[in-house]
Structures are given as C-alpha cells and as structure tokens.
Amino acid sequence: MKKFKALFVDSFQELRDVRKLAVAAMLLAIAVVLGFYRLQLTDYIRIGFDFIAKESAAMLLGPSIGCVVAGLTDIISYVIKPVGAFFPGLTLSAMLASVIYGVVLYQKPLSLKRVILANGLVTVIVNLLLNTYWMTILLGNAYMALFPARAVKQLIMFPIEVVLFYTVAKVFSKADIFAALKGQAGR
C-alpha cells in the first residue's frame, strides 16, 4: 500500500520541476488538439486519438499529473469546442483512465505487456463499463442496448491503441525523453 501511495506522492512532486510542468502543459495542449480530430460514428461511438497524449502524461509524469492533465483536457476541450452537453462523469472517466495508466506505467520499465495491461484495464473498466453507464444517463438508452456496439468498437480499437501508444512510448525511450525528464540526458 505504501508503494501505491508513493506513486501518487512522487507524481505530484513532479510539478516542482519546471521542465516536467512544461511537459505536462505541452501534453495537455497536444491532447486538446488531438481531441478535435475524432470520428463521431454514432451518438455513443466516437474514435479519437487524444488518449496518446494523456497516456503519455501518465506514463512520464505519473498518475497524479496524468489525472490532472486528463481532467483539464476534457474541460478545456469542451470550453473551446463544445460537442453535446458537458457531463462530469465522462471527465471522471478520463481522469480514472489516466490514473490507471500512471499506476501501471509510471516509473516502470516500458514493455508491451505493461502497455497491453494498462490499455486492457482502461478498455474494460473505463471504456466499456463506466462510459457505457454514463451514456445510458446521457442518452436515456438501456445499458444492454448500448453495450454490444461499444464492445465491438473497443475490440477493434484495443489493438490499434496498444500499437499506437507502444510505438510512441518507444520513440520517447529512444529519444531519451525519460532521461531528459530526470535531468540525465546526454550522460
């Protein structure tokens, strides 16, 4: 339990470093911009790529900062370009997803297994279960009426999201971004 708590404390203390604060701000801005480029297939099925920046923030800066970045991304995106009604439940889902990514990926060696685990947990807990519930509240449809189509979408998107994020994370790793954030680049 102490290690779990330490993840959040360490993550929150990342804000003391100006470089990490700047990285958080840049990833937030990237997430907002990526959020504008999404496909709205139906009222309850949307495909977007802002998860890449939010997941990167959680991986690089931890669950606390990832949670803040995800929450602010959701709110700022709505203020700049509102699509439908603002619903705090979906903001909480985005924040929870970043916490999961941060807990699984922060301060741990990058591996495909970890990326699959993090994306799997988010896909099932947040995207399938929680977000489908929020959609029932927003749209007034029955949970089981929405679930099958959302499940198919998640099955299709899961491998795409894993490959996209793992590729981005590998690029970060090769570019020494992890070391640069720790102040060890070029050593």
- Multimeric status of the protein: single chain
Structural class determined from secondary elements: mainly alpha
Compressed to H and E, one letter per element, the order equals: HHEEHHHHHH
Total strands: 2
Rg to the nearest angstrom? 16 Å
Describe the SSE topology.
Elements: H1 2-13, H2 18-36, E1 39-40, E2 46-47, H3 51-61, H4 63-80, H5 88-105, H6 112-139, H7 143-174, H8 177-181
Antiparallel strand pairs: 1-2
Helix pairs in contact: 2-3, 2-4, 3-4, 3-5, 3-7, 4-5, 5-6, 6-7
Give an overview of the whole structure:
This protein has 187 residues and is mainly α. It has one domain (2-181): Arp2/3 complex 21 kDa subunit ARPC3 (Orthogonal Bundle), CATH 1.10.1760. Helix content is 76%, strand content 2%. A hairpin with a 5-residue loop joins strand 1 and strand 2.
Quick structural summary:
The protein is mainly α. It is 76% helix and 2% strand.
Keywords:
2 strands; 8 helices; mainly alpha; two-stranded antiparallel sheet; Arp2/3 complex 21 kDa subunit ARPC3; single chain; 187 residues; globular
